[in-house]
Amino acid sequence: MKSASTPSGQELFAGQQLMGTRHLRMLRWVLGVVLLMAVVAASALWLAQHQARLLSRPSQHNDLWYIASVNNELSRVSLLAQEAAAGDTSIDELVLRLEVLYSVLDHSPTAPKVNVQFRDTLPETANTLDELARAVDASAKQLEQPNNANLPATLRQVATGLQRFREPIAQAVADVHLASTLEADRQRLRLLLSFTLLSLALIVVLVGTGIIIWRALKDREVALQTSQALNEANQLLETRVRERTRQIDEAHNLLTFILDASPSDVALIDALGGQVHYINRRLMERLGMHQQPQTLRLQDLLHDAATGQALRQALDESGQIDGVEAQIASTPPYWSSLSGQLIEVEGRLCHLIWGFDISIHKGLEHELRLLATTDALTGLNNRRAFLDKAEVLLEHCRRYRHACGALMIDIDHFKTVNDRHGHQVGDEALRATARSIQSVLRDADVVGRMGGEEFAVLLPNADLQGTLDTGERLRQAISAITLPLPDRQTLRLTASLGVASFQPPTQTLAQLLAQADQALYRAKAEGRNRAVRYLPEMLDL
């Protein structure tokens, strides 16, 4: 009986399925959270690294350096132009510094590239620098003209032209410095925001990791409880399986013992391949087998293969057979009353056959049949059996219009033999007469003792002359009998025979035997020890 506190196997299986479904959902949820946290953390980390790279670029302060370089070069060129106008420096050095300033300001496709950002953010400063570049280029070209007669005036003009850019360039330096400072502040704010997002992502990751760890611990606790319950259920199930297996083995052993001890023969055979699933010991002993055979066909189980084939066909068609009498193929064969059932074993159709030995019954039946149909003294057919067989034989001759002859035989002076020599000699005379008659007749002929010393014979396919010839041979065979007597003398027998021929299709067996009997009376009247055929005028006797 199942304990109320112990879960059943079905309950455990249902609980395990439900837990498996929950674990699958939880696993999907955890994987989703981990993936989301990884995406957020990766995005924040990338953004922080991007902002850090922006702040750490070498060209980050190019704008300020560039505008400061332009301002310094402009101051130096202006000073050199004033000194050249005063005659304190050479024109070549001034031209060289102008070219240096121009190269810094030059933004043509062939000029060296300087990464500056203010040209996009400060267009007025960019225009000022472009004007300065054009002015420097024009000044350099004026100074490079040969034979310049008014060189001092040109130098003063160059110095004045460059001097007017001092204030716009100084303002540009202030503007670029302010713009660079603002841009650096913005980048620092973005970097701070990136690190804030990264911190939040890390906090989320830590919180999520904590939740996952907590959930894992809870799942581990539940798994341990479930595993313990499952182990207990498995132990209970194994105990029940062992108990059930023991019960099945005991039942199987008991059934095998009963079947082996049973007087019946039992076999379970595969219907298609003939593999033997079971055969009891009694049947194996009857078949002369020491161990269970691998295969045994149903038709091979019976002495007559045709009967076995018919038995199998009937079993396959109807699904069962009951009380079929057949001979089992043992040594010697014996009669059995067989029954069978078409059943399914492990998905395959099988023949379950069982039977009982009825050899004694069949022997008694045969003896009863012999007692009912055989004359006990002579071993010939008695009157009833002779008439039954003769009726069947005569009907066959009538149907196929075959000839048939009849003989009535009577031992001459048999009453005198009994009175003079005793009934023992008379009985021996009857047995000797029966043996003589059987020695002459064919297997197809029917002979019987009709009573007392009278015998009857039916000869199929024999016309009147053939019947007369057979009757004469019978008479001679009986006349050749010599029986020893107690006084050392011998007894010789003779017989009278009446012969008749079947007249189809209306003549009956009674009429045919009556004609042969009439001819027998004529043979006795004419002196005995002879065979006389029936004539129509004998009806007057």
UniProtKB/TrEMBL annotation:
Q: What is its EC number?
A: 2.7.7.65
Reaction catalysed? 2 GTP = 3',3'-c-di-GMP + 2 diphosphate
Which InterPro entries does the entry link to? Answer: Diguanylate_Cyclase (IPR050469), GGDEF_dom (IPR000160), Nucleotide_cyclase (IPR029787), Rev_trsase/Diguanyl_cyclase (IPR043128)
> One MF term from GO for this chain?
diguanylate cyclase activity
Annotated CDD domains:
GGDEF
The keyword Mitochondrion appears for this protein: no
Q: Keyword annotations for this protein?
A: Membrane, Nucleotidyltransferase, Transferase, Transmembrane, Transmembrane helix
Q: Does the keyword Membrane apply?
A: yes
Stored SUPFAM superfamilies: Nucleotide cyclase (SSF55073)
Q: Name one Pfam family in it.
A: GGDEF
All residue ranges annotated as the GGDEF domain in the record: 402-536
Annotated TM spans: 26-48, 191-217
What NCBIfam families does the record point to?
GGDEF
Kindly provide the name given to this protein in its UniProt entry: diguanylate cyclase
The scientific name of the source species is: Hydrogenophaga defluvii
